[in-house]
Hints:
The complex is a heterotrimer.
Chain A lengths: L1 H10 L3 H21 L3 H25 L12 H18 L11 H4 L1 H13 L4 H9 L1 H22 L3 H14 L1
Chain B lengths: L6 H26 L3 H23 L24 H32 L4 H19 L8
Helix pairs in contact in B: 1-2, 2-3
Chain C lengths: L4 H23 L8 H18 L2 H7 L2 H24 L15 H32 L11
Amino acid sequence: MLVLTAIAVVRMRSLFAIAMLSGVFSLLSALLFVTLDAVDVAFTEAAVGAGISTVLVLGTLALTSRYEKPTNRSPALPLFVVIVTGAALIYGTLDMPNFGSPDAPAQTHVGPDYLEGSVHEIDIPNVVTSILASYRGYDTLGETAVVFTAGIGVLLLISGLSGRRRRDDEEESEET
Amino acid sequence: MGFELTQEYIFGHLNYWLFSVLMMTGLYIVVAKGNLVKKIVGLNIFQTSVFMLYISMGKVTGGTAPIFPLDMQIDPDVIYSNPLPHVLILTAIVVGIATTALGLALIVRIQEEFNTIEEDDILKIERAITQAENAIHGESMGGPA
Amino acid sequence: MRHHLILRVITKLLVGAIMLFAFYVQFHGDFSPGGGFQAGVIMAVAFILYGLVFSLHDVQQVFPPWLVHKLIALGVLLYAGTGVVSMFLGYGFLDYGAFTPDHPAHGQHYGIFAVELGVGITVTAVMVAIYYAFASRPPRLSDEEW
């Protein structure tokens, strides 16, 4: 399903349909996250991917254009690059532990420590919250700062500049 | 590499391969398509498939979501999946939407400056600008930019 | 958007419910799936929905842009401030045991509460600010072209 949606995004030319399909893709991946036990992540993905990101893409489309122009570039070179990279990635996964195996390296060191320590040290049922806010508080502080910076960047780029844009247009029309 | 193509091996690695394919679909959109909005959507697909890869590493067979019972009486027989990838990806999703918004804002500005969001057209306009500047200032300004 | 009567009525009903759910996710995040990031996004969705169905002007009267811009910084400040307070109490940066030294686990509860609140405020404000920034540009396409 996910692959089909992704391929549909490649083939589509209407950007409106692409925005909708990316929302569909997000919802499908949220379902996948639920089956992989990551309920918090699924929750976020559904709210962010299907909600806000679709609204933002549609907002951009309203400010730009609705259709993609067909390009005359040949897809051969990108396809070659992609296939080589993909082959390298798949080669890299050959040494990975089996899916869901309890003795994988990821399951044997920090993960169980957090699970056990969280009971006595934090006393909060949702381990994801306790790691997010307490064990890895520095990380989350950094992430919040990144969100903050991105917000400032968007404000600097596209707010309060509409007056300047109109003046630019007038200058252009005078020149021509 | 000492591995055999048994059925168990294939099913154990099928998820990684699936995510690689998705990742490459996203990469293909970014590299091959000229429309900037479409490139951003491709980046999102790429990003989401990386998230899936991480989350699938944290899954333990027979495990459940890492949330304890409210009374904190933990049954030692219950297996919990690894919560660490969940935390990393949770924050990554929100940071991802913030950076996507930044990219879309850049696209809006590009649209205003160049009046197009197709990569080919933008390159054409930039080349024309460079040639015009060279014609005015001559090559003494440092040659073609 | 004058004629979308059903949308407008349903939105008025939903916005309150969405906000309530956002607060539930925010403050119940210790016990069930949820936390500051999700709650912030859901809260922002409530404002965005209101702005989409009514108008940017209406939503900006409820939640003015200058307040949004202040809140972006306030959230990060609240998060970092929690760490600084714990540092002044003689513990490490962001070591929540500092708040109740005789029962560290309680201190953790308070610390996580404050930190998640900071995250929630910042995420809400950033998302709403981004929406305002996009929606306040004059659109190139008229409604009929969609």
